[in-house]
Design brief:
Blueprint lengths: L1 H13 L4 E17 L2 E19 L2 E7 L4 H22 L12 E2 L7 H4 L3 H16 L4 E17 L4 E16 L5 E8 L7 H12 L11 E7 L1 H14 L3 H5 L20 E3 L21 E5 L2 E2 L6 H7 L22 E3 L7 H5 L4 E15 L4 E14 L2 E5 L4 E5 H6 L3 E2 L4 E3 L13 E3 L2 E7 L2
Parallel strand pairs: 4-6, 8-13
Antiparallel strand pairs: 1-2, 1-5, 2-3, 5-6, 6-7, 8-20, 9-10, 9-12, 10-11, 13-14, 14-15, 14-16, 17-20, 18-19
Helix pairs in contact: 1-2, 4-5
């Protein structure tokens, strides 16, 4: 990691005078995709990106380069300064208070040596195990396996010197049975040993080949058991919409004027916990601010929203270490280490026992907010939707569209599973930034509109 911090320091030295911050991100990763139980594509990424951010009159300009020689770093700094000055001229003085002061930040223990080797044979073995697990049930395996080794370093003229290294592994398996029905399972971990490809394939294939013809249910509100992947999707949106400090500052958050109030069932305890054992730990954010555990909802009561430097200034507070980009992302800060504490039910089967007639949901797909301030979300169940009758999961049902408030689903939560796991979509657009939600399955009610 020392080389990345040294590169950040060189870029900072080459930058124009004034308030400046440099972020260096390095990614080495392997990704293997497969369909119909055959490999279809593999990619090997080895990338270093230098981002220089300059603050001028409350505005931030940034520029990036993949070149690391002195001339390229100096040119990148000049481009960032020109962008900041242009923004100040056209829009007037802004509200960014300047990059935060800081010191040295130590890395979290999120690195695994074996995973960092990025051996293609490990990916090949994972695919073989997934194919075999699906074949045993007469299903085909489709999906992705990916492993990454990421380094981040931040240096600023305000005194920040920080570097961190993280490995991550992700695998998702969508199994298709002979009748065309699908089942889904995924695994995310810091290390290769944390993902079991055979077990994922067997779980997915069991759903794809379940007995019975699918039944169509009419729209309405139903008792539901949500697997952890569906719960993780809801919580990720809750963090982005409600606990987002910029949304809070602009009056768009469901928690505006509600901090200190009960917003969910008392059994709901959500935190942003970068040191939690099962999460993907990060020591600091994109501005070099150290990350610390934060209670967000405790015993159903809303406690906090997360901030980067920009949103914190708008609220008269300090950054909580949640900047996605130096100077603040346009979307705002988002908690990336969400943890929902489990409950008393042994598993999904026990959660289903009190339900006379309801819906079992593996995951939610293509979710989008309808009314952000209400946390009203719509999406479709997918890859394993089943009928619950007299306390048992009995037969497949056609996928259904849900349209409901996230806070409403959590407020109606009746119980949670005892065991939590790290869930993730594992999709990377641009540089690799692996994150997920640690959560259990739960029982609640949900409104289906189609």
């Amino acid at each position: 990691m020392s080389w990345a911090l040294e590169l950040a320091e060189r870029a900072l030295e080459a930058a124009p005078p004034g308030d400046a911050l440099v972020q260096v991100t390095a990614e080495r990763s392997l990704t293997m995709r497969f369909a119909a139980s055959r490999p279809t594509q593999s990619t090997d990424v080895d990338d270093v990106t230098v981002l220089v951010a300059i603050a001028r009159e409350g505005r931030v300009g940034s520029a990036t380069t993949n070149l690391t020689d002195a001339d390229a770093l100096a040119e990148c700094g000049r481009a960032a300064a020109a962008a900041a000055e242009a923004a100040a001229r056209s829009g007037g003085p802004g509200e960014f208070p300047g990059f935060p002061e800081g010191g040295e930040v130590r890395a979290r223990s999120g690195f695994d040596e074996e995973t960092a080797e990025l051996d293609p044979a490990a990916g090949g073995r994972a695919l073989e195990e997934a194919f075999a697990g699906c074949a045993e049930r007469g299903a085909e395996a489709h999906g992705t396996w990916s492993a990454g080794d990421s380094i981040t370093a931040v240096a600023s003229r305000a005194g920040v010197h920080a570097s961190d290294r993280l490995t991550d592994v992700f695998m998702k398996v969508t199994a298709f049975g002979p009748g065309g029905r699908s089942g889904f399972a995924e695994g995310t971990a810091r290390a290769l040993a944390g993902v079991d490809p055979r077990a994922l394939a067997e779980r997915a294939a069991a759903k794809a080949t379940a007995d019975g013809e699918p039944l169509s249910l009419p729209p309405g509100e139903y008792p539901v058991v949500l697997e952890a992947d569906a719960v993780g999707e809801l919580l990720a949106w809750l963090g982005a919409l409600a606990h987002n400090g910029l949304a809070y500052a602009e009056g768009r958050s469901a928690l505006c004027d509600r901090l200190g109030d009960r917003v969910t069932a008392a059994r709901i305890n959500v935190s942003d916990s970068p040191r939690y054992a099962r999460t993907l730990p990060r020591a600091f954010d994109a501005e070099g601010v150290p990350k610390r555990p934060m209670p967000l909802i405790q015993d159903g009561v809303a406690h906090r929203v997360v901030h980067d430097t920009r949103s914190a200034a708008l609220c008269g507070e300090r950054s909580t270490g949640h900047a996605l980009t130096p100077g603040g992302d346009a979307f705002g800060p988002v908690p990336a280490n969400l943890v929902l504490i489990g409950g008393g039910a042994a598993d999904e089967a026990e959660l289903a026992q009190p339900i006379e007639r309801g819906v079992y949901v593996t995951r939610l797909w293509y979710t989008n907010p309808v009314r952000e301030k209400e946390t009203l979300l719509t999406g479709v169940t997918r890859d394993g939707t089943f009928l619950i009758e007299d306390g048992r999961v009995t037969r497949p049902i056609d996928d259904m569209r849900m349209t409901d408030s996230i806070l409403g689903v959590l407020d109606r939560c009746e119980d949670l599973g005892a065991n939590t796991r790290l869930t993730s979509e594992g999709e990377f657009y641009g540089r690799r930034f692996a994150y997920g939600v640690v959560c259990p399955p739960l029982r609640s009610t949900m409104r289906f509109t189609g």
